[in-house]
Amino acid sequence: MPQLAPDDLQAVWLTLKLASVTTILLLAVATPLAWWLAMSRQWYKGIVSALVALPLVIPPTVLGFYLLLLMGPHGVVGDLTTALNLGRLPFTFAGLVIGSVLFSMPFAVQPIQNAFEAIGRRPLEVAATLRAGAWDRFFSVALPLARPGFLTAMILAFAHTVGEFGVVLMLGGNIPGETRVLSVAIYNHVEAMEYASAHLLAGGMVLFSFLVLLSLYLAGGKLVKV
Amino acid sequence: MNEIRAQFSLQRDGFRLDASFSAPAVGVTALFGSSGSGKTTLLRCIAGLERAQGSLQVKGELWQDKTTFLPTHKRPLGYVFQEASLFTHLSVRANLEYGLKRTPITERKVPPEQVIEWLGLSRLIERGDPAKLSGGERQRVAIGRALLTSPRILLMDEPLSALDTNSKQEILPYLERLHRELNIPVLYVSHAMDEVARLADHLVLLEKGCVIASGKLHETLARLDLPTAHYDDAGAVIEATVAQHDEKYHLTRLDFPGGSLWVGKMDHAPGSKVRARVLARDVSIATQQPHGSSISNILAARILEIRDEGPDKVSVKMMIGDSQVLLSRITRRSRDLLALSVGMDVFAQVKSVALMA
Predict the structure, then answer these.
(1) Which of A128, A141, A144 sits opposite B73 (nearest CB)?
(2) Which of B12, B69, B77, B88 to mutate to test the interface with A (most CBs of A within 10 A)?
(3) B85 and A122: CB-CB below 8 Å?
(4) Helices marked H in chain A — which ranges?
(5) Do residues A219 and A211 touch, judged by C-beta distance below 8 A?
(6) Does residue B51 register a pLDDT over 70?
(7) Share of chain A above pLDDT 90, in %
């Protein structure tokens, strides 16, 4: 039985930490965004939808490149964070989180938006005629009815962040304990011809991803009606 | 003060609602019209589900005007949608309690046990999941859910139209019971004349987004100048009292001011109030008291109005006694052969009576 080296173990923990923080932040950001996209009839809704979906089609390196420029010494965000005494974000864990949130955004927004759209306006109108105010309607009707969408969003956002490479490499580099996540660690092992260690991490990742998707599809039937 | 006064205008996708009416805030007021006449939109405006321009007062309370717009959840109304719309994530009981929990205790006037008993809900509550209920049962739960908020007015949007005939027959008695026993005014949207004739006291007639008539049900239905007079099932509504049962021939006599009608035997005790509907096409006219007729319901009447109804027919409005109106639809040829004219005394022969009780 091969053992994980301490460095690799650190990469595993860092990856799980990044994926967890990203998922939590994504839920906070994606929920109102998905709600607005599902309910709005504004003309610029299409533009917002396209922007949210953009990470699906552009290479991660492109996203990482522009984030690097934005957050760097001459970028708008970089100037802002420096002015706020937060230092610079590239090559930090916080920088990775921001990159991951943007990169996994469509995986969180779309399932939640679909779930809200599937509910339709009717149950919310019913709730309004039964004396429920806007927030009450959201929490007592929309959220419970959209639960399957939330589960899908959480699983996909988490898994997608775990598998991230391009954005991390462009934005975070390779700092152990800070930005060296699993995918980067695998890359390093392959570069160093340490195929056994690469196998261990890569195989683990394949297994993990398979189990996540399996749970999603197995639960799929039941999640629709809990 | 005990009135509903509404005036709304709304422009949307080639449809224009420009409706105003006032109706007594007692009994059932039907908003009646064909599909596309704007009756559902009008109801949604009253509920605040559509943001239309206009004004709305219910029993002297201002719900909407130029500067005021009470959001739906602040309007003390109950709303029953076309399809039952029970919350699928909640049990039957939780559905019933959803609005009740959100109604301040001081405003809870309708006792839950009474609603549960009236609508026969206790067995439905035991079944737990709304998905296990039939369409009619779900609609009963939805009506109960709305009533438990102790609404000052109950809005019903074609609550029977999504149901099959059996479920309709199952629900109608409950609606009539609410009508009789609960002192909550109802606005009832429908395009089914038989439902309206059965349930409503007051009629608001809509066409192409406008109110074309509003008045007491039996008076409005008896008007020959309204589109309702052209319907195949145009007819008069009679409020009658069960007078006597004839066991031998299995018949029941109904009395109304000015006359009486024999109908098939009913279960109602003598003295009960029932509503009957006599369709214009089921009434023929004779200028002399007919003899040797198999028709047993022959009423002395006086002609009030005659109006052409298409190329071959005419509608005749008659008065029985001092207050009961009857409609008849006969051919133009018969009118000329009998030389019928306004003011003439005739005999109305009623071939069939639809009972609605």
Answers:
(1) A128
(2) B88
(3) yes
(4) 6-39, 45-57, 60-71, 76-83, 93-119, 122-129, 134-137, 143-145, 147-162, 166-171, 182-191, 195-223
(5) no
(6) yes
(7) 60
Please determine, for residue B243, whether its predicted confidence score (pLDDT) is greater than 90. Answer: yes
Q: In this complex, do B78 and A129 lie within 8 Å of one another by their Cβ atoms?
A: yes
- pTM of the full structure: 0.84
Closest Cα in chain B to A131: B73
In terms of CATH, what superfamily is B3-221?
P-loop containing nucleotide triphosphate hydrolases (3.40.50.300)
| Per-domain boundaries in chain B | 3-221, 235-355
- 């799929």: which residue's tokens? A220
Dist. CA A156–CA A219, nearest whole Å: 14
- Beta-carbon separation of A129 and B72 below 8 A: yes
Size of interface A-B (CB pairs under 8 A): 61
Chain B CB contacts of A125 below 8 Å:
49, 72, 79, 81
Which residue, among A41, A119, A125, A126, would best test binding to B if mutated, counting the most B CBs under 10 Å from its CB?
Answer: A126
Superfamily of domain A19-172: MetI-like (1.10.3720.10)
Do residue A130 and residue B89 have CB atoms under 8 angstroms apart? Answer: no
Q: Do B71 and A128 touch (CB under 8 A)?
A: yes
Report chain A's mean pLDDT, rounded to a whole number: 89
What are the structure tokens assigned to A85, written together?
A: 């005494």
- Greater confidence, A172 or A138? A138
Which sequence spans correspond to the domains of chain A? 19-172
Nearest by CB to B98, which of A130, A145, A226? A130
With contacts defined as CB-CB under 8 Å, which chain A residues touch B73? 127-133, 136-137
Residues of A whose CB is below 8 A from B155: 129
User: Which architecture, in CATH terms, is B235-355?
Assistant: Beta Barrel (2.40)
Summarize pLDDT for B135-184 with one digit per residue, the tens: 889 999 999 999 999 999 999 999 988 888 888 888 888 888 877 777 88
Query: Is B89–A144 a contact, with Cβ atoms under 8 angstroms apart?
Result: yes
